[in-house]
Amino acid sequence: MADLTPEDLAVIEESIPLDHRQEACELLGKGDNLLKILREGLGCRFATRGDKLIIIGSAHRVRGAVSAVNALLSLVRRGTSLTEQEVRYAIRLVEAGEEKSLHRLFGDVLLTAHGGKPVRVRTLGQQEYVGLIRHNDITLAEGPAGSGKTFLAVAMAARAGSGQDVQGLWSAWRLLKLWSIPFFVLNFLYSVLAWFIIVAASR
Questions:
Q1: Which of 68, 72, 73, 173 is buried deepest, with most CB atoms within 10 A?
Q2: Collapsing DSSP states into helix, strand and coil, what is residue 118?
Q3: Which of 159, 160, 146 minimizes the C-alpha distance to 190?
Q4: Which of 52, 114, 122 is nearest to 87 (CA)?
Q5: Is 130 strand, coil or helix?
Q6: Distance between CA 167 and CA 66 in Å, rounded?
């Protein structure tokens, strides 16, 4: 971290306007579980005053907190239920000095699934992967199980297509995920389903 000036260390207060009180509940979590993570991770105090969220702390910490909260708030306003993982990742980006990446990351919605739920990237690594898929005819990916390789590839194929057939295949993929199937069988089914989606999308 760069040397801090007296201005950086000065205690300041910033306010973030909320559209309605429910936004505060969604942002801070059930039983304030997300608030605790924000407070500990960002080193600031948080309070609600009417239709505003107040952030108090040293100037350099408050600046990062405002960026993180605004990015998370944009998710809430799109109907996303925040998870502890997303909040912790936002804090990690702030600590790494990558606050500017937050809005670009959380705003990258690939498609809207059945029921209006947005499908989007969750990490900078996933965003880079999706970017490669967007700009290349063939993309090879290697990574640990559960890192989103197949999920994002299928989402991009569904996004490239149109019509009820593609949406139906997307819904089928979501159902497959709920079944208790051995990993190697599930991985094979994912691959077959991804192929069908790509074929349907290319028609």
A1: 68
A2: strand
A3: 146
A4: 122
A5: helix
A6: 37
Cα torsion at 135, 137, 140, 141 (round to 10°)?
40
Rounded-to-integer distance, Cα 23 and Cα 176, Å: 33
For the chain, how far is it from start to end, CA to CA, in angstroms?
Answer: 52
Which burial class, exposed, middle or buried, applies to 111 when counting CB atoms under 10 A from its CB (0-12, 13-18, 19+)? middle
Contact in structure between 119 and 110 (CB atoms under 8 Å): yes
Alpha-carbon span 22 to 52, nearest angstrom:
12
Q: Which amino acid would we find at residue 182?
A: P
Give CA 41 to chain center in angstroms.
18
- What sign for the dihedral angle of Cα 38, 41, 46, 51? negative
One-letter identity of residue 37 = I
Please name the helix (run of DSSP H) or strand (run of DSSP E) that holds residue 172, with its range, or none. Answer: helix 164-178
